[in-house]
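Dear colleagues,

As part of the handover before I leave the project, I'm documenting each prediction I ran so the next person doesn't have to rerun anything. This entry is a single chain, and its sequence is reproduced below.
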Amino acid sequence: MSCFNHESSEPICLRWRSSSWFVTFVIGLGVSVDLLVYSIIIPVIPFQLEKLGYTRVSALTGWLLFCYSGGLVISTIPIAWFTERYETRQHPLVLGLLILTGSQILFMFAPHYAVMCIARILQGIGSSMVWVPGLALLTDSAPETLIGTQLGIVMAGVSVGVTIGPPVGGSLYPRFGFRGPFIFGIICTLIDLVFRLLVVERKVAVRWGYDPAAFENVRKDQPPTASLGHEDATTKETIGDPERIELGRRASGSAQEPQVGPLTGSKPLGFLVVIPCLLKDSRTLVALLIAFVYGILFSSQEPALPLHLSKVWKLDSGRIGLVFLASVIPTIFSGILSGIWVDRSGTEWPTFISLIMAIPWWIIVVIEYRLALFITAFGFEAFFSSAVLAPVTTELAAVAREMDGIGYGHVYGAFNLVYGLGSALGPVIGGQIYAHVDRGWLALCLVATGFLAVSTILSFFFIGKDPLYYRLRRFMPPRRPS
């Protein structure tokens, strides 16, 4: 139940609180806050560990990052199961923000490294509860023709959070000490919580004659239990199909909740049954593989890039931060642009073009010529690589709509799981390659290029309802018999 909702009265400001654009704003804000909370303490963790008397600070910091990914991974499956089993988005979202707030308080007062690890695990669990039901709530409410755009806006929130977090944390630490970045993160989380409480889920809005996912809606002046025993011609022209189903159920005295979202009237499957179903579908498998590769690619650069920039161009930590900033800013726009493209043409071309256009820039960044060339190439690399997120998440939504018993919570739970695994393995892979291979930066970028090449080929054959391979085959002239 949302804030200000009562079973016997219509929620206040129902239209805007359940509208797809308000939901998109709230989920985008939540993703930004989640990444801000994740990244704001990265610049200050080493100083706190040194203050507490620890050595080998870089290794301990790496394990704290791993704890976050571990918490995210282990919590994804039960969260996705709960979200679909009980057809609720609001409750896990609110609980996730409370856990996120508690984890920051625990970390802020942590006297030992072990307590820090527990706090980061809890933070990963809270983040999982932000992502899985959040993306499910968005795709519940979004019209099918706008899902790509709205997912692109939400994915831009990732870049916003990562862009704001480290500079704010670095500036607050000298003035307010170790607790300063945490207090800022807690304030942002509580603001996010207020907006989450304002959201009205689609299934609640449908009960009151309004479907945010439909283009044509009707508002009833009377409670939904009144005058619902018939449908005249005018009502059939103005009310959407999901609403007619719900109104018909109430007229017949059915107490069953409306099946909103991707389900086609079938009972949601258990997650242990869902996983084999998803893995048998080539579209889903390739989309999840691309998400896994994306998680590896960017996290693998995190331990190696500062060392590479310091070695080649003698940059200090401040300038290295500016290079990171130059790479993140373009990604704010790439998700939105690719999302708009997805809504206009489907997922096939945006996925393929994003992947294939990213490959040259991963090769150019190995050139040790001028720093300006590196920054430009690094920015384009991030732009095209990040552009793939909107079509991949839209592709998963399309799969959920077409498979009986599969819900948005299931597919985004799988997305969160593979992305979390990729982001957990990435720093280990990148750090080991850079440390133990001659010309480690070159080797790391070539490995990433290989991952992208494989993903590009697979997307050509399997992404979309009508993959590019089969499209192009139809345009090829038939072979003449010899």
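The two ends are 70 Å apart (CA to CA). Residues 108 and 179 are 6 Å apart (CA to CA).

All the best with the project,
I.
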